[in-house]
Amino acid sequence: MQGTMQAVRLHAPGDIRLDTIDIPTPGQSEVLVKVVRSGICGTDLHIAKGNFPAPNLPLTLGHEFSGVIVEMGAGASPMNVGDSVVVDINIACGRCFFCRRGQKLFCPTVTQLGVHRAGGLAEYIAVPAENVYVLPEGFDVDAAAYVEPLACAVHGQDRIGITFGDRVLIIGGGPMGLAHVALSKLAGASAVIVSEPDATRRALATRIGADHVVDPFATNLDEYLASLTDGVGPDVVIEAVGSIPTYETAIRVARRGGKLLAYGAAPQSAELTIRPFDIYAKELTIVGSYAGTYDTWPRAITLIATGRFDPSLIVDSVRSLDEAAEAIRALEHDRSTVKVQIQVSR
Ligand SMILES: [Zn+2]
Ligand SMILES: [Zn+2]
Predict the structure, then answer these.
(1) Cis peptide bond upstream of 26, omega within 30
(2) Has residue 298 been placed in a domain?
(3) 99 in the same domain as 165
(4) Domain annotation covers residue 301
(5) How far is the CA of 118 from the centre of ligand 2 (A)?
(6) Is 212 known to be catalytic?
Protein backbone atom coordinates (compact mmCIF):
# COMPACT_ATOMS: atom_id res chain seq x y z
CA MET A 1 0.00 0.00 0.00
CA GLN A 2 1.50 3.31 -1.12
CA GLY A 3 1.20 6.53 0.84
CA THR A 4 1.90 8.09 4.19
CA MET A 5 0.48 7.65 7.65
CA GLN A 6 0.61 9.21 11.07
CA ALA A 7 2.67 7.57 13.79
CA VAL A 8 3.45 8.47 17.41
CA ARG A 9 7.22 8.27 17.58
CA LEU A 10 9.81 8.67 20.29
CA HIS A 11 12.85 10.57 18.98
CA ALA A 12 14.78 10.89 22.23
CA PRO A 13 13.91 10.53 25.93
CA GLY A 14 11.06 12.96 26.55
CA ASP A 15 10.64 13.80 22.86
CA ILE A 16 7.44 12.20 21.48
CA ARG A 17 6.01 13.49 18.19
CA LEU A 18 3.15 12.75 15.86
CA ASP A 19 5.08 12.18 12.61
CA THR A 20 3.98 11.61 9.03
CA ILE A 21 5.93 8.66 7.63
CA ASP A 22 5.60 6.10 4.84
CA ILE A 23 3.14 3.26 5.29
CA PRO A 24 5.30 0.15 5.85
CA THR A 25 5.42 -2.59 3.23
CA PRO A 26 4.81 -6.09 4.62
CA GLY A 27 7.86 -8.26 4.04
CA GLN A 28 8.15 -12.02 3.60
CA SER A 29 5.63 -13.79 5.87
CA GLU A 30 4.33 -10.48 7.18
CA VAL A 31 0.92 -8.83 7.01
CA LEU A 32 -0.02 -5.16 7.02
CA VAL A 33 -2.54 -4.30 9.74
CA LYS A 34 -4.68 -1.17 9.71
CA VAL A 35 -4.78 -0.27 13.39
CA VAL A 36 -8.24 0.25 14.89
CA ARG A 37 -7.50 0.79 18.56
CA SER A 38 -4.28 1.10 20.52
CA GLY A 39 -3.85 1.22 24.29
CA ILE A 40 -1.50 3.44 26.24
CA CYS A 41 0.38 1.78 29.05
CA GLY A 42 2.75 2.60 31.88
CA THR A 43 5.49 0.89 29.90
CA ASP A 44 5.14 3.60 27.24
CA LEU A 45 6.00 6.21 29.86
CA HIS A 46 9.01 4.15 31.00
CA ILE A 47 10.21 3.96 27.39
CA ALA A 48 9.50 7.63 26.72
CA LYS A 49 11.48 8.69 29.78
CA GLY A 50 14.43 6.52 28.80
CA ASN A 51 13.97 4.16 31.79
CA PHE A 52 13.42 1.20 29.53
CA PRO A 53 16.02 0.33 26.90
CA ALA A 54 14.72 1.52 23.49
CA PRO A 55 17.70 1.10 21.19
CA ASN A 56 16.09 1.92 17.85
CA LEU A 57 15.06 5.58 17.72
CA PRO A 58 12.93 7.04 16.32
CA LEU A 59 10.55 4.35 17.60
CA THR A 60 6.82 4.10 16.90
CA LEU A 61 5.29 3.34 20.30
CA GLY A 62 2.27 1.16 21.08
CA HIS A 63 2.19 -2.52 22.05
CA GLU A 64 -1.52 -3.01 22.87
CA PHE A 65 -3.40 -2.82 19.60
CA SER A 66 -6.09 -4.37 17.46
CA GLY A 67 -6.83 -3.92 13.79
CA VAL A 68 -7.73 -5.38 10.42
CA ILE A 69 -5.45 -7.04 7.86
CA VAL A 70 -5.29 -4.90 4.72
CA GLU A 71 -2.38 -6.47 2.83
CA MET A 72 -0.57 -9.80 2.79
CA GLY A 73 3.15 -10.15 2.28
CA ALA A 74 4.53 -13.07 0.31
CA GLY A 75 4.10 -16.39 2.09
CA ALA A 76 1.86 -14.99 4.83
CA SER A 77 -0.87 -17.48 5.70
CA PRO A 78 -3.37 -18.72 6.70
CA MET A 79 -5.16 -15.45 7.49
CA ASN A 80 -6.84 -13.16 4.96
CA VAL A 81 -7.30 -9.54 4.07
CA GLY A 82 -10.27 -8.26 6.09
CA ASP A 83 -9.59 -10.43 9.15
CA SER A 84 -9.80 -8.62 12.50
CA VAL A 85 -6.69 -9.38 14.50
CA VAL A 86 -4.50 -8.85 17.51
CA VAL A 87 -0.75 -9.41 17.44
CA ASP A 88 1.50 -11.06 20.03
CA ILE A 89 4.16 -8.36 20.31
CA ASN A 90 6.96 -10.78 21.22
CA ILE A 91 9.06 -11.81 18.25
CA ALA A 92 11.73 -14.42 18.96
CA CYS A 93 14.11 -16.73 17.07
CA GLY A 94 12.26 -19.99 17.79
CA ARG A 95 15.48 -22.01 17.96
CA CYS A 96 17.52 -20.95 21.00
CA PHE A 97 17.74 -22.54 24.46
CA PHE A 98 14.76 -20.55 25.76
CA CYS A 99 12.60 -20.70 22.63
CA ARG A 100 12.98 -24.49 22.61
CA ARG A 101 11.67 -24.55 26.17
CA GLY A 102 8.60 -22.44 25.44
CA GLN A 103 10.13 -19.36 27.08
CA LYS A 104 10.57 -17.01 24.15
CA LEU A 105 10.47 -13.92 26.39
CA PHE A 106 14.02 -14.82 27.42
CA CYS A 107 15.26 -15.34 23.86
CA PRO A 108 18.51 -13.37 23.48
CA THR A 109 17.18 -11.85 20.26
CA VAL A 110 13.56 -11.24 21.36
CA THR A 111 12.12 -7.98 20.12
CA GLN A 112 8.79 -6.44 21.02
CA LEU A 113 6.55 -4.37 18.81
CA GLY A 114 6.37 -0.86 20.21
CA VAL A 115 9.44 -1.41 22.38
CA HIS A 116 12.26 -2.46 20.06
CA ARG A 117 10.55 -2.07 16.68
CA ALA A 118 7.64 -0.10 15.22
CA GLY A 119 4.47 -0.49 17.30
CA GLY A 120 0.76 0.13 16.98
CA LEU A 121 0.37 3.80 17.84
CA ALA A 122 0.21 4.41 14.10
CA GLU A 123 -2.33 4.01 11.35
CA TYR A 124 -0.62 0.91 9.97
CA ILE A 125 1.86 -1.69 11.19
CA ALA A 126 3.62 -4.56 9.43
CA VAL A 127 3.84 -7.68 11.62
CA PRO A 128 4.94 -11.32 11.28
CA ALA A 129 1.95 -13.47 10.30
CA GLU A 130 3.17 -16.01 12.88
CA ASN A 131 2.31 -13.58 15.69
CA VAL A 132 -1.20 -12.77 14.45
CA TYR A 133 -4.33 -14.05 16.18
CA VAL A 134 -7.50 -13.77 14.09
CA LEU A 135 -10.42 -12.71 16.29
CA PRO A 136 -13.57 -14.85 16.44
CA GLU A 137 -16.55 -13.82 14.31
CA GLY A 138 -18.36 -10.84 15.83
CA PHE A 139 -15.58 -9.96 18.29
CA ASP A 140 -15.53 -6.21 19.05
CA VAL A 141 -12.26 -4.98 17.53
CA ASP A 142 -12.17 -2.06 19.98
CA ALA A 143 -12.34 -4.44 22.95
CA ALA A 144 -9.50 -6.44 21.40
CA ALA A 145 -7.02 -3.68 22.20
CA TYR A 146 -7.17 -5.01 25.76
CA VAL A 147 -6.04 -8.52 24.78
CA GLU A 148 -2.33 -7.76 25.25
CA PRO A 149 -2.60 -6.43 28.83
CA LEU A 150 -5.08 -9.19 29.68
CA ALA A 151 -2.70 -11.83 28.27
CA CYS A 152 0.00 -10.40 30.58
CA ALA A 153 -2.34 -10.62 33.57
CA VAL A 154 -3.35 -14.18 32.61
CA HIS A 155 0.34 -15.11 32.58
CA GLY A 156 0.76 -13.59 36.04
CA GLN A 157 -2.20 -15.60 37.28
CA ASP A 158 -0.73 -18.77 35.77
CA ARG A 159 2.52 -18.07 37.56
CA ILE A 160 0.96 -17.46 41.00
CA GLY A 161 -1.74 -20.14 40.81
CA ILE A 162 -4.62 -18.94 42.98
CA THR A 163 -6.60 -21.84 44.43
CA PHE A 164 -10.24 -22.02 45.54
CA GLY A 165 -10.86 -20.07 48.70
CA ASP A 166 -7.65 -18.04 48.64
CA ARG A 167 -7.77 -14.57 50.10
CA VAL A 168 -5.99 -12.32 47.66
CA LEU A 169 -4.58 -8.86 48.25
CA ILE A 170 -3.94 -6.75 45.17
CA ILE A 171 -1.72 -3.75 45.79
CA GLY A 172 -2.57 -1.08 43.23
CA GLY A 173 -5.86 -0.41 41.45
CA GLY A 174 -4.39 0.64 38.10
CA PRO A 175 -5.38 -1.07 34.85
CA MET A 176 -3.35 -4.19 35.60
CA GLY A 177 -4.38 -4.41 39.26
CA LEU A 178 -8.00 -4.20 38.13
CA ALA A 179 -7.47 -6.99 35.59
CA HIS A 180 -6.10 -9.11 38.44
CA VAL A 181 -9.22 -8.37 40.50
CA ALA A 182 -11.43 -9.86 37.78
CA LEU A 183 -9.12 -12.82 37.13
CA SER A 184 -8.64 -13.60 40.84
CA LYS A 185 -12.41 -13.83 41.23
CA LEU A 186 -12.62 -16.16 38.23
CA ALA A 187 -9.78 -18.23 39.68
CA GLY A 188 -11.76 -18.96 42.84
CA ALA A 189 -10.57 -16.41 45.40
CA SER A 190 -12.93 -16.20 48.36
CA ALA A 191 -11.96 -12.60 49.01
CA VAL A 192 -10.27 -10.04 46.77
CA ILE A 193 -8.92 -7.05 48.67
CA VAL A 194 -7.57 -4.00 46.83
CA SER A 195 -5.21 -1.50 48.42
CA GLU A 196 -5.30 1.74 46.45
CA PRO A 197 -5.05 5.38 47.56
CA ASP A 198 -7.16 6.84 44.73
CA ALA A 199 -10.93 6.87 45.39
CA THR A 200 -11.90 6.61 41.70
CA ARG A 201 -9.76 3.53 41.29
CA ARG A 202 -11.17 1.99 44.46
CA ALA A 203 -14.68 2.53 43.07
CA LEU A 204 -13.65 0.84 39.79
CA ALA A 205 -12.15 -2.05 41.75
CA THR A 206 -15.47 -2.56 43.52
CA ARG A 207 -17.31 -2.41 40.21
CA ILE A 208 -15.10 -5.07 38.68
CA GLY A 209 -15.60 -7.39 41.64
CA ALA A 210 -13.32 -6.51 44.58
CA ASP A 211 -14.86 -7.59 47.88
CA HIS A 212 -12.93 -5.08 49.98
CA VAL A 213 -11.14 -1.87 49.04
CA VAL A 214 -8.87 0.11 51.31
CA ASP A 215 -6.93 3.37 51.21
CA PRO A 216 -3.55 2.37 52.68
CA PHE A 217 -2.82 5.98 53.67
CA ALA A 218 -6.04 6.37 55.64
CA THR A 219 -6.24 2.92 57.24
CA ASN A 220 -3.70 0.73 59.00
CA LEU A 221 -3.32 -1.87 56.27
CA ASP A 222 -1.85 -4.61 58.46
CA GLU A 223 -4.69 -4.38 60.98
CA TYR A 224 -7.28 -4.19 58.22
CA LEU A 225 -5.90 -7.29 56.52
CA ALA A 226 -5.71 -9.13 59.83
CA SER A 227 -9.40 -8.39 60.40
CA LEU A 228 -10.27 -10.03 57.06
CA THR A 229 -7.96 -13.05 57.27
CA ASP A 230 -8.30 -14.62 60.73
CA GLY A 231 -5.36 -12.52 61.83
CA VAL A 232 -2.84 -14.21 59.53
CA GLY A 233 -2.69 -12.08 56.36
CA PRO A 234 -3.59 -12.84 52.73
CA ASP A 235 -2.70 -16.17 51.10
CA VAL A 236 -1.70 -14.39 47.91
CA VAL A 237 -0.40 -10.86 47.40
CA ILE A 238 -0.19 -9.37 43.91
CA GLU A 239 2.07 -6.33 43.71
CA ALA A 240 0.78 -4.29 40.76
CA VAL A 241 2.45 -0.93 41.39
CA GLY A 242 6.18 -1.41 40.92
CA SER A 243 7.43 0.80 43.75
CA ILE A 244 9.78 -0.17 46.56
CA PRO A 245 7.41 0.73 49.44
CA THR A 246 4.62 -1.38 47.92
CA TYR A 247 6.98 -4.33 47.40
CA GLU A 248 8.04 -3.99 51.06
CA THR A 249 4.39 -4.00 52.07
CA ALA A 250 3.71 -7.06 49.92
CA ILE A 251 6.49 -9.07 51.58
CA ARG A 252 5.42 -7.94 55.05
CA VAL A 253 1.69 -8.64 54.81
CA ALA A 254 1.68 -11.99 52.98
CA ARG A 255 0.77 -14.69 55.47
CA ARG A 256 3.24 -17.30 56.62
CA GLY A 257 3.32 -19.90 53.85
CA GLY A 258 1.82 -17.35 51.47
CA LYS A 259 2.70 -16.37 47.93
CA LEU A 260 3.71 -13.09 46.32
CA LEU A 261 3.41 -12.23 42.64
CA ALA A 262 5.94 -9.60 41.56
CA TYR A 263 3.85 -8.10 38.79
CA GLY A 264 4.53 -4.35 38.97
CA ALA A 265 7.54 -3.17 36.96
CA ALA A 266 9.90 -1.36 39.30
CA PRO A 267 12.57 0.93 37.81
CA GLN A 268 15.40 -1.27 36.56
CA SER A 269 17.92 0.18 39.03
CA ALA A 270 15.63 0.31 42.08
CA GLU A 271 16.81 -1.77 45.04
CA LEU A 272 14.89 -3.42 47.83
CA THR A 273 16.21 -4.36 51.25
CA ILE A 274 15.00 -7.82 52.10
CA ARG A 275 15.69 -10.06 55.08
CA PRO A 276 16.27 -13.59 53.78
CA PHE A 277 15.11 -14.76 57.21
CA ASP A 278 11.61 -13.49 56.40
CA ILE A 279 11.43 -15.58 53.24
CA TYR A 280 12.90 -18.54 55.11
CA ALA A 281 10.80 -18.35 58.25
CA LYS A 282 7.59 -17.43 56.45
CA GLU A 283 8.22 -20.00 53.72
CA LEU A 284 7.27 -17.25 51.34
CA THR A 285 6.93 -18.07 47.64
CA ILE A 286 7.91 -15.13 45.44
CA VAL A 287 7.32 -15.42 41.70
CA GLY A 288 7.88 -12.91 38.94
CA SER A 289 5.75 -12.24 35.89
CA TYR A 290 7.05 -10.28 32.95
CA ALA A 291 4.68 -10.54 29.98
CA GLY A 292 2.13 -12.75 28.28
CA THR A 293 2.84 -14.78 25.18
CA TYR A 294 1.85 -18.11 23.58
CA ASP A 295 -1.47 -19.51 24.84
CA THR A 296 -2.21 -16.56 27.12
CA TRP A 297 -3.27 -14.67 23.96
CA PRO A 298 -6.02 -16.99 22.74
CA ARG A 299 -7.13 -17.49 26.34
CA ALA A 300 -7.40 -13.71 26.83
CA ILE A 301 -9.37 -13.50 23.58
CA THR A 302 -11.74 -16.20 24.82
CA LEU A 303 -12.25 -14.51 28.20
CA ILE A 304 -13.34 -11.30 26.43
CA ALA A 305 -15.37 -13.10 23.74
CA THR A 306 -17.41 -14.95 26.35
CA GLY A 307 -17.97 -11.86 28.47
CA ARG A 308 -16.06 -13.37 31.41
CA PHE A 309 -13.82 -10.32 31.24
CA ASP A 310 -15.14 -6.92 30.20
CA PRO A 311 -12.44 -4.40 29.22
CA SER A 312 -14.98 -1.56 29.19
CA LEU A 313 -14.99 -1.71 33.01
CA ILE A 314 -11.34 -0.58 32.95
CA VAL A 315 -10.96 1.57 29.82
CA ASP A 316 -12.32 4.93 30.95
CA SER A 317 -10.93 7.24 28.25
CA VAL A 318 -10.80 6.91 24.46
CA ARG A 319 -8.95 9.62 22.55
CA SER A 320 -7.61 10.36 19.08
CA LEU A 321 -4.12 9.71 17.69
CA ASP A 322 -3.12 13.39 17.96
CA GLU A 323 -3.79 13.20 21.72
CA ALA A 324 -1.61 10.13 22.25
CA ALA A 325 1.69 11.87 23.01
CA GLU A 326 0.05 14.03 25.67
CA ALA A 327 -1.74 10.99 27.10
CA ILE A 328 1.62 9.23 27.54
CA ARG A 329 3.16 12.27 29.22
CA ALA A 330 0.11 12.61 31.49
CA LEU A 331 0.63 9.09 32.90
CA GLU A 332 3.29 10.58 35.13
CA HIS A 333 1.05 12.85 37.17
CA ASP A 334 -2.59 12.65 36.02
CA ARG A 335 -4.60 10.18 38.12
CA SER A 336 -7.97 11.23 36.66
CA THR A 337 -8.07 8.38 34.16
CA VAL A 338 -7.20 4.72 34.66
CA LYS A 339 -6.78 3.38 31.14
CA VAL A 340 -6.53 5.47 27.99
CA GLN A 341 -6.95 3.93 24.54
CA ILE A 342 -6.49 5.65 21.21
CA GLN A 343 -9.13 5.22 18.52
CA VAL A 344 -6.82 5.16 15.51
CA SER A 345 -9.53 4.25 13.00
CA ARG A 346 -12.99 2.70 12.94
ZN1 LIG B 1 1.37 -2.48 28.16
ZN1 LIG C 1 15.13 -17.67 20.77
Answers:
(1) no
(2) no
(3) no
(4) no
(5) 20
(6) no
pLDDT digits (tens, 9 = 90+) for 129-139: 999 999 999 99
Q: What is the pTM of this model?
A: 0.96
Q: How far is the CA of 112 from the centre of ligand 2 (A)?
A: 13
Catalytic annotation, pick one of 4, 11, 25, 43? 43
Ligand whose nearest atom lies closest to the CA of 106 = 2
Statement to judge: residues 247 and 321 lie in one domain: no
Pairing between strand 339-343 and 191-195? unpaired
Give 211 Cα–ligand 1 centroid separation in angstroms: 26
| In a shared domain, residues 35 and 62 | yes
The kind and range of the H/E element at 22 are: strand 15-22
Residue 73 sits in the same domain as residue 186: no
Please give all residues whose CB falls under 5 A of ion ligand 2, grouped by chain where several chains appear.
92-93, 96, 99, 107
Q: Dump pLDDT digits (tens) for 57-104.
A: 999 999 999 999 999 999 998 899 999 999 999 999 999 999 999 999
Helix H segments across the chain? 42-49, 97-100, 147-160, 175-186, 199-208, 221-228, 244-253, 276-282, 296-305, 324-330
326 inside domain: yes
CB proximity list for 61: less than 8 A, separation 6 or greater: 8, 9, 10, 16, 44, 47, 48, 114, 119, 121, 324, 328
Sign of the alpha-carbon torsion through 183, 42, 103, 286: negative
Nearest listed ligand to the Cα of residue 90: 2
Closest listed ligand to the CA of 147 = 1
Active site residue 180: no
Q: Which ligand is nearest to the CA of 38?
A: 1
Chain CA centroid to CA 207, Å: 20
Give distance in angstroms: CA of 136 to centre of ligand 2.
29
Same domain assignment for residues 158 and 117 = no
Q: Is 159 a member of any domain?
A: yes
